[in-house]
Amino acid sequence: MEDAFDHALRLALDLGKAKADTGAMAEASDETDNMRERLIALRAQLSGEDAGAAEWRKPVALDQQSVGRLSRMDAMQQQQMADAEARRRKSDIARIDAALKRLDEGEFGWCLSCGEAIAEKRLEIDPMATQCIACAS
Q1: pTM for the whole thing?
Q2: Which one of 15, 32, 56, 75 has the fewest CB atoms closer than 10 angstroms to its CB?
């Protein structure tokens, strides 16, 4: 198992190699820009969905004359499901904001638990991932 010094030394060497290769830096910059655009588009999509679903989250009327009991129960269930979806979207938006912050700070793509690189395939599937496969398991 690698100790903290060896890990830091390896990261510094990897960083030095990346700085020496300007072609790799340009490619990394393009990948970073693509990821940023993807995250911003995903955030906009989620915000739009949240705005569109606001109608479903409104309180259910208790007027038994205009809406039957079963219809009201169905409306309440739909409201609860819409609330759960809104919470999920807000959580995803917060994760996107955190990923954008990591991009700005140059920390994107590195596991927050062990410091190793997160696999590109994992980031393609979930660009908001904060842990490598080993730490997430």
Answers
A1: 0.65
A2: 15
